Amino acid sequence: MKRFLFEKAGLIRFHDVPRLGTLNLYRMVLRFAAVQYFSCAVVFFFSGQMILLAIAMAASITNICLALKRSENFQFLVLFEHILIIVVTVLFVVFGSWDYGFQYLLILAIVMTIFSPFKSTAVVTILGFSEAIIYLLLYSFCAGDTSGDLLPKVAIQLIHCYIFFSVATITIISIRSADFTISTHGQRIIEKNRELDDLAHRDELTGLINRRAMREILDDAWDDYATSGAEFSVIAADIDNLKTINDTFGHDFGDQLIKTVSKILETEFRKHDFVSRWGGDEFLILISEGGSYDDLVDLVERVRKRISDGVYSHNGEAFTTSVTFGGASCVGKSDLLALVSEADAQLYIGKQAGRDVVRIEEQQREPR
Fold first, then answer.
1. What is the pLDDT of residue 131?
2. Among 10, 129, 356, 358, which residue's beta carbon has the most beta carbons within 10 A?
3. Rg, C-alpha atoms of the chain
């Protein structure tokens, strides 16, 4: 019962995945990487390494463009950054030196693939293996190269600082990517479980809570009554002459009539009451006590009159319908079965008395 009370009060809310926050963080990291590439470009400029200068400037500009790109496709940005790391690392090692340490970006990229938000495991596998193979090839052909001696020791130390900051930024990307992936999958699981739970507790035709859900609500209400004395009533309602309507207009129209009556019941009863489809053309309503006995009868009588005063049509032919109500209070009942049985008994008496009436605890109100 508590779950449905929360839904009625609008208290159940599921947190959205922080997609925009993750993207904004990623764009900030891209800007930071662009600054780091530019810093390397400055080092290469003063060291006279024009080819490496061009590579660093191209990498810096590319990161800036990615950061400014107004796209919310997180997977595209991560994939493009992987490709950029591969290309830049290969160029720096081939045209520069193994001693500069750019190859360690590939190792970080391999680790980063584990946390990448790609739906396809094939993409993750191919990307990781590609980066590993490229690293091994660079190690085979470029390790031991002494061309790094062409740069001053201070310049190499500055580049190592760049590598350090790059490690930090890629670590941030990996953590946030993992958070995004886990949050996304977790949200999907929550939504799927909620859908399944709704299917298990909702009537397919009318959208009302079904018999199973109503039993749970009644159990909770009875427990509250037993512990705190919170009284409630149960109203049984049945559409009159539905079999005749089905035989005359067909079962599809009968189903449509059930949906129409369901909507009226759900609308006319109070927000904190519970309306369920108990089975077939019968409904069961839990009325939370909020007034006198006369208030309860007036409430149900108003709903009955709303239905009986309605004019319905089928293929241009107008007709009316009605609903008989029977109710009982939890006071004086030994258990839930006795309560529901009493409401059904009052409903049966109302049917025998001519239908389209309200009977609650053996007191009858004739149609007005």
1. 87
2. 358
3. 36
Report the alpha-carbon distance of residue 159 to residue 302 in Å, rounded.
Answer: 82
The pLDDT of residue 238 is: 95
User: How many residues are given for the chain?
Assistant: 368
Q: Can you tell me which residue has the tokens 């809570």?
A: 209
Determine if the pTM surpasses 0.85: no
Q: Which of 37, 74, 58, 54 is nearest to 169 (CA)?
A: 37
Give the angle 119-121-124 at the CA atoms, nearest 5°.
100
Tokens (6 digits) for 199:
């299917």
> Is the pLDDT score of 362 beyond 90?
no
- Token representation of residue 75: 């997977």
Task: Render pLDDT for 85-132 as a digit per residue (tens, 0 to 9).
Answer: 888 888 888 888 787 777 877 877 777 777 666 667 788 888 888 888
Tell me the sheet residues that pair with 317: 314
307 to each of 237, 311, 362, 367, how far by Cα in Å?
12, 9, 22, 12
Closest C-alpha among 164, 146, 145, 156 to residue 47: 156
DSSP-derived letter for residue 208 is S
d(CA 219, CA 222): 5
In whole angstroms, give the CA distance from residue 278 to residue 131. 61
